[in-house]
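hi! just following up on the protien thing from before. the input was this:
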Amino acid sequence: MANIQSSLTAEPSGNEKAYTIFEVLDLVNKYTNKFHLKDAQCIRPQIVKISLKGFCTDPKKLPYLILHKIMSNDIRCRTNLYKKHMESMTPEKESDEESEDESESDDEDFFNPDQLHPVDCLIALLLCCDDLLRRDIFTRLAKCQIAIPLVLPNPFAKKLIIPLWAMRSIYKEWKMIEAKPQQCHHIVSYPMPIVSIVQFGQRQKEGLSKSQILNLLITQGVDSDGHFFHRDCSGGQYKQILGEGLIDMSWYLPSDQNSHENSITFLNLHGDAYDFPKQLEFLSQISSIIFFMICDQNICKPKVDNNIMQFCSAKPTILNATKKSIKNIFPNLKIIRVSSKAAHEIYPKIWEHVNSKVLSLTEHHSIVNLVHQKASDSIFSIDEREVIHKNGLKHATVIIANINALKYTTTKEDILPLHGRIGLN
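and the predicted 3d structure came back as:
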């Protein structure tokens, strides 16, 4: 708790709100005394009862409810599970309160601790988990087709967190080009094109959602609600505090019907990219293709224009905007002009350009290699570079070497002499 409180002096406005979230969720002590895997595997009858109800009215039980749903492989773990005074609320009062919540959340400076954004709750929980539990959570989120955090913002530390070791256990199976059976691989260790999508400026309430576009790209127009969380999801109308600056990722994996296409890693930066230069610089270094969404009010701002030109100089880039005048500002870049605010109508154009650029790429890299090559220790805290992980790798290497040195033909007779024919005699 002292670590969190001492960090409030660095950035009072942002950290105080983040600290309030941890207080509301009763996670202040858990930030230093982490949740362990045994805590997640413990069955709590009260939490099971709340889970069957579908929501909780006590925010202090919310982390345990989210953890319970994750361990149950329940996709509803990222929905709005906290509803204040819901038991005593009539349907009319509930609808009135939701309309008030939406109007209040439109105010950029407004923050109500009773309006907890689901992404904030999930990030707070991940920051309070040890590495083993975080690894298990990532595996289960991937099974639920929920985007995995690649870069976690930590409001109580200067460095951004990349939980690389936690991602290594994620397996995916898909149909690869010129491969008859489907292949199964560690997804973060497999080389594939990386497409990042970022947004300059705050999206208007009825504006186009980049997360919905990503969902449509991954599912080929089938589902706009899976994988990446967006504003139209349950609880998405609330203001994000911890989620601003988060980079999460998911994958487009071809099936038998479209096995001629490449698998693609999609990365999504939450919030206004202009406010997160470290994340933007990192994405520019690891991305094969960058897709910028430009809000109208930011098109003609010189600082934004310079940022775009800086990161577009060495990468294939697609710009998305509504004004015709943007063509004059960026004459050498590929621009998709949005004539409709419906994601279902615009995503085919984006997919066409993304897929054509992906097919033209000659080199692919894995997330693991790119993180180790491009992520600086002065900016990022990577779990695999910590002493405990290095020592664990050394011990694991020794164990594997001893196993490989065994003679498989005689090992069973040496270890289990009474098993089999010898035991019968």
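The chain is about 40% helix and 15% strand.
The two ends are 64 Å apart (CA to CA).
cheers
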